[in-house]
Amino acid sequence: MRRLGFLAGLGGVLLAQAVAAEQPAPPEGNPAAGKVAAGLCRTCHGLNGFARIPIAPHIGGEHPSYIRHQLEAFRSGTRQHEIMSVVAASLSDAQIADLSAWFAMQKIHVALKPGVDPHAAPEACALCHGADGVAVLEDAPNLAGENSVYLETQLKAFRTGKRTHEIMSPIAAELTDAEIRAAADWYAAVQLEIDPPP
Ligand code: HEC
Ligand code: HEC
């Protein structure tokens, strides 16, 4: 029951975010410039954001504000990773905006494996990440087709405090290893395709 009470409290968090969203807008990204800059990212994330190595997440079709926030977090050190911290350190605000616009405009297609019942999705997650792993909340990432090891690592990072977020940290704090594994396996099993870059 604690979780339900917690979710009811999220109304306030989401409202606070909506208010924060009225701050001055960040620079508008230019996707054509982002495509050029994405040459730096393609060996790991693909030019269309479909990851080419298992440890890298798919980033094509994510909401631009999610991509921007993660790149800013790697750059400022609030999120750390041996590769991404180095990559993001050299990006300007304009490049971050351009890259976010480029990867966000990629077209994704997702499908549950044949015979899988969408109602079996982890209920506490589908509210924001969708049953099929396509986020229904602007600041939430898509989880569809991500590698299960990546998803598990991120959830454990939220649980230990290595990665922090006002919504995900308290949610992950209550998850057992088995719940983390089950949620990671569910979303990793979703079939994801991303169209070739335009
Ligand atoms: C050498 C491989 C490599 C390169 C090059 C690279 N990345 Fe990454 N990227 C990763 C890995 C690995 C992660 C997962 C980090 C973690 O585990 O926290 C990641 C994570 C991310 C994330 C977070 C996604 C999420 O779902 O939270 C974003 C956004 C991102 N990269 C964007 C970029 C952009 C933009 C570029 C090019 C400017 C780039 N990356 C270049 C390997 C790479
Ligand atoms: C109320 C909305 C909400 C709910 C419920 C929720 N999430 Fe999240 N989730 C988010 C947001 C927002 C982020 C982005 C965090 C950030 O910016 O670092 C996120 C990030 C994540 C990430 C990181 C993905 C990446 O690409 O790096 C994972 C994994 C994740 N959530 C899994 C889950 C799981 C599993 C559940 C259910 C147990 C869940 N979430 C429930 C909103 C939610």
Topology:
Blueprint: H1 2-20, H2 31-37, H3 42-45, H4 64-76, H5 84-89, H6 93-104, E1 108-111, H7 123-129, H8 148-160, H9 168-173, H10 177-188, E2 191-194
Antiparallel strand pairs: 1-2
Helix pairs in contact: 2-6, 4-6, 8-10
The structure holds heme C (2 copies).
Protein name: Cytochrome C
Domain Cytochrome c: 29-107, 110-191
GO molecular function: electron transfer activity; heme binding; metal ion binding
Summarize the structure.
This protein is mostly helical and 198 residues long.
Q: Look at the structure and give the mean pLDDT.
A: 91
Radius of gyration (Å): 17 Å
CATH class division: Mainly Alpha
Largest sheet: 2 strands, antiparallel
Task: Estimate what percentage of residues fall within beta strands.
Answer: under 5%
> What's the overall geometry?
globular
Q: Can you tell me the CATH topology?
A: Cytochrome Bc1 Complex, Chain D, domain 2
Number of helices: 10
Bound molecules: heme C
CATH architectural designation: Orthogonal Bundle
GO molecular function: electron transfer activity; heme binding; metal ion binding
Keywords: Electron transport, Heme, Iron, Metal-binding, Signal, Transport
Protein name: Cytochrome C
Pfam family, one: Cytochrome_CBB3
Characteristic key phrases:
Cytochrome Bc1 Complex, Chain D, domain 2; 50% helix; mainly alpha; binds heme C
Give a written overview of the molecule.
It holds the Pfam family Cytochrome_CBB3. Residues 1-21 form the signal peptide. Keywords: Electron transport, Heme, Iron, Metal-binding, Signal, Transport. The chain is mainly α and 198 residues long. It is globular and about 40 Å long. It has one domain (27-194): Cytochrome c-like domain (Cytochrome Bc1 Complex, Chain D, domain 2), CATH 1.10.760.10. Helix content is 50%, strand content 4%. It has ten helices and two strands. The relative contact order is 0.16. The protein has a two-stranded antiparallel sheet with strand order 1-2. The N and C termini lie far apart (47 Å). The chain has helices at residues 2-20, 31-37, 42-45, 64-76, 84-89, 93-104, 123-129, 148-160, 168-173, 177-188, and strands spanning 108-111, 191-194. The mean pLDDT is 91. One heme C (HEC) binds next to helix 3, helix 4 and helix 5.
